[in-house]
UniProtKB/TrEMBL annotation:
Keywords: Glycosyltransferase, Membrane, Transferase, Transmembrane, Transmembrane helix. It is found in: Membrane. It is a multi-pass membrane protein. PANTHER family: CELLULOSE SYNTHASE CATALYTIC SUBUNIT A [UDP-FORMING]. GO terms for molecular function: glycosyltransferase activity. Pfam families: Glyco_trans_2_3. The keyword Kinase does not apply. InterPro entries: Glyco_trans_2-like (IPR001173), Glycosyltr_2/OpgH_subfam (IPR050321), Nucleotide-diphossugar_trans (IPR029044). Its main location: membrane. This is N-acetylglucosaminyltransferas-like protein. One of its GO terms (cellular component) is membrane.
Length: 506
């Protein structure tokens, strides 16, 4: 180490800038300024989406207070007409879902009658790589339980399945990591991979697809770390691949199993039943395309190795699903391929998760909306039916956030300027300001009732009929919350916010 003598600190006062005191102040000032600027810039960047959304609502309410009556009537008609279109599309998806639901039940009945002897002999089944993706700090309390479940409970020939645990962690967690390695030694079909330099689910999956996948892999299944796949789920999925070479992706049904924790988890559980058991299979029939939804999805290995995951996307799974669709891949939804997962138990966790989903969907929609007009692969033409379904999914769904929130703002303007003074006035206060609203409102309500009636017929064992009733009562508020989150996602995208917030599991 270099030694210093007193002469090293002698200051030549006449040299000005060479003064050790002046130089120190200069360096400190230069250091503080960039740090201060960076902090202010970061603060503005993080809070810009909030300021945009929070100013959006009062500005819109004030706009309706000063605009003409004709303008209000035109907008109100556009909103109600679009709302009816969305509601009608939802109920049509629900009715179309009845067929795949019946078919899935018939398949189960046949297998049960044959003492669970499946159509495809074990020797003819493909090699399955099942992937469990984990961000260890958030999932360290559940990962060992899920891995133990998968290696012991999944019913599939042991010589034809590999269970791969891909995890990343910014800091070592020795006890959990050591236990994972011990499990890998105990089970020959379990492989544990700590992915270096990974910061996302996409990094973990791409590492596996680039460095770890074996040549004999036929199908790759992707699961988040909180999932419990049904013991027979993998077999059902592989039966679909064995029965048809045209199937590229099998997406299963995800069920919330902690539905009774609190009010929020009950609402999410009903929503998941409505989405996975009704909307997804119904849309696949109605528009003739299905989608991979992020977890409990089975891919032909060659296709997934070709597409990989785009780490620049906040919802890389939705992006990969849409890229697969753009390449002409055929994705099907199977109600027998079930898996059980956790819902967020607190509003902050729910908010962060849905904000990431909303911004991710915005990114994916902007990137892939061109599928409504561009040329598809020659081997699988894209029909007008598929194109309009894509347009409805990627454009109308995003646009509906503004219609819902604008109607909410319009209602507040009515509260301020047209508060009812009689019983009849109260009757006309909401939705019935204009004659056309009677028809569009009641038709939309009937569509909602029909959709939830079908949802009740296929609800999971963790959802009660009373939960569906409560969901129906709060559905309007739930739609407004989700629309606001959608707007927030748009604002984040405009502000180029790119922080990835993984969901906390417990």
């Amino acid at each position: 180490m270099k030694s210093f003598s007193p002469k090293d600190f002698i200051v030549d006062v006449g040299s000005g800038a060479s003064s050790i005191t002046d130089a120190g102040i200069e360096v400190a000032t230069k250091t503080k300024k960039p740090r201060l600027v960076a902090r202010v810039s970061q603060f503005i960047h993080e809070w810009t989406p909030f300021l945009l959304v929070s100013s959006y609502f009062p500005f819109s309410v004030c706009l309706y207070l000063v605009c003409s009556q004709t303008f209000v009537e035109v907008f109100f008609f556009i909103y109600l007409a679009t709302n009816f279109y969305v509601a009608a599309g939802t109920v049509l998806e629900a009715f179309f879902s009845i067929t795949p639901i019946k078919e899935s039940r018939q398949v189960v009945e046949k297998a049960s009658a044959k003492n669970w002897v499946f159509p495809t002999p074990d020797s003819d089944l493909g090699m399955l790589d099942l992937i469990l993706v984990a961000y260890l700090p958030n999932e360290k309390d559940i990962i060992l339980d899920r891995v133990d479940y998968m290696v012991n409970k999944i019913i599939y020939p042991r010589d034809k399945i590999r269970i791969n645990v891909l995890y990343n962690t910014p800091k070592a967690i020795p006890d959990v990591e050591n236990d994972l390695r011990v499990l890998a030694k105990e089970h020959h079909h379990l492989r544990v991979v700590k992915v270096p330099n990974s910061t996302s689910k996409a990094d973990n999956l791409n590492h596996f697809l680039t460095h770890c996948v074996e040549p004999d892999s036929d199908v790759i299944a992707i699961f988040d770390a909180d999932h419990y796949p049904h013991p027979n789920a993998s077999r059902w999925a592989m039966e679909r691949f064995a029965q048809s070479s045209d199937i590229d992706i099998v997406q299963g049904r995800c069920i919330i199993f902690n539905s009774q924790d609190n009010f929020l988890t009950k609402m999410i559980a009903v929503e998941f039943d409505k989405i996975y058991a009704v909307s997804h299979p119904g849309r696949a029939v109605m528009w003739n395309f299905g989608l991979f939804c992020g977890s409990n999805g089975y891919w032909r290995s060659d296709l997934l190795k070709k597409l990989k995951m785009d780490g620049s996307m906040l919802t890389e799974d939705i992006d990969s699903a849409l890229r697969a669709l753009s390449h002409g891949a055929n994705a099907v939804h199977d109600m027998n391929v079930t898996s059980y997962e956790l819902a967020p138990t607190t509003w902050p966790t729910f908010w962060k998760q849905r904000l990431r989903w909303a911004q991710g969907w915005t990114q994916a929609s902007a990137r892939h909306l061109q599928m409504t007009w561009n040329a598809p692969p020659e081997q699988r033409p894209r029909t007008a039916r598929i194109r309009f379904g894509i347009f409805s999914l990627l454009f109308i769904r995003e646009w509906s956030y503004y219609l819902v929130t604008q109607c909410t703002c319009l209602t507040f303007s009515f509260v301020i300027s047209r508060w009812p003074k009689s019983g009849l006035g109260a009757l006309h206060f909401l939705f019935f300001q204009y004659p056309i609203a009677w028809w569009l409102f009641f038709l939309s309500v009937l569509c909602l009732v029909a959709t939830l009636w079908i949802t009740n017929r296929v609800k999971s064992e963790f959802v009660t009929r009373w939960d569906i009733v409560v969901f129906s009562v709060f559905y309007a508020f739930y739609i407004i919350v989700n629309a606001t989150i959608g707007l927030y996602g748009h604002a984040r995208q405009v502000a180029r916010y790119s922080s990835w917030n993984p969901t906390v599991r417990s």
